[in-house]
Amino acid sequence: MASKVRVAIVGLGFGAEFIPIFQAHPDAEMYAICQRNPESLKKTADTFGVSKQYTNFDELIKDPNVDAVHINSPIPDHAWMAIRALQAGKHVACTVPMGTSIDECRQICEAQKKSGKVYMMMETVVYSREYLFAKELYDGGKLGRIQFLRGSHQQDMDGWPNYWPGLPPMWYATHCVSPCLAILSDPAKKKIALAESVVCHGSGRIREELISKYNSPFAVETATFKIKGTDIAAEVTRSLFDTARQYRESFDVTGSNVSFEWQQVEGEDPVLHTRGLPEPQIPKRVKVPDFANRLPEPIRKFTGAIHDATHLSFLQGAGHGGSHPHLAHHFLMAVLGKQPAFPDAPTSANWTCVGICAHESAMKGGERVQLPNF
Questions:
Q1: What is the pTM of this model?
Q2: Using N-to-C axis directions, what is the helix angle for 319-335 and 129-139, rounded to 10°?
Q3: Where do the domains of the chain lie, and which CATH numbers do they carry?
Q4: Could you tell me if residue 312 is left (phi over 0), alpha (psi between -120 and 50 degrees) or otherwise beta?
Q5: Where are the alpha helices (DSSP H) in 116-257?
Q6: How far, in Å, are 31, 313, 331 from residue 51 at the CA level?
Q7: Chain-centre distance of CA 96, in angstroms?
Q8: How does pLDDT run across 161-202, given as a tens digit for each residue?
Q9: Measured between alpha carbons, how far is 373 from 225 in angstroms, rounded to an integer?
């Protein structure tokens, strides 16, 4: 591998947001981009000045100059693309979820182990400023003992691409599952919290035309899962269709001394609840830092909102709580062997399979389902 990691980005909707980050990172070369639509591909290449372009994924992974592939394709393509890239000897970063079945997750874990390359699921929430703030409080002892964890991800997906309609809510649950497990983990010490078993109930019913594709009737799925080797349970709630709710990614930590609550309404500051104070003083809103000081200086600017109005049409805005540069940096450091990937392949599989097994539980009327061991 060259002194810089030569990165290829696959999928240029959400994926285009990472192009300027890799271009600015001192340890990366933004080498190539890949998209099926040649007109859109050329537009993105011209906008960002990327000379190497592919419309075919299999041709891309044959390129010996590609060290790492960052996959941002539609959900049904995540698993097969990750497997083929690993088999081709490429390091892989992939947007969530890892796959849509236990077997897909198992195949990726096997391909990663056989290849010896890095696999990292690019889970935005555990690199968002809100999560990093809660994690810092916990690691510093301010929260005390964790007593309970809760995640929520609610979104209206009407009008999204054709693989979305009727998707079981828990198949795309990593945004609410991941922080509940990551906060108890310490990858540097090889301490990884994993879900052990899950119970889930479905509630409500979506429109009949949405049900037929995946045979999933539920408007909302809510699961509780046990965390292996602990006395802690976590609860996660997910909705995609026919539910009146502003978009929310939320994560709450109930601690013995201080509790953290991310948000009820988008744009509001998080709340800390401090035990032992007079009742009106218990809750206090807090400003969350961007943690840019953890990053190389050239990419610190990407922790904020849209950084360059020239690229407005390519960018969604807030960058998932400023997570994008943290994700890109962590992946590059893992590829260079300077720190472990987090989440790595087995951890990504566990986070993803909480949702897969949760939906299975819901379809069985709330039976407890044990998670597979990766």
A1: 0.94
A2: 70
A3: 5-123+308-339 (3.40.50.720), 125-295+353-370 (3.30.360.10)
A4: alpha
A5: 129-139, 174-182, 208-214
A6: 8, 20, 23
A7: 5
A8: 888 999 999 999 999 999 999 999 999 999 999 999 999 999
A9: 15
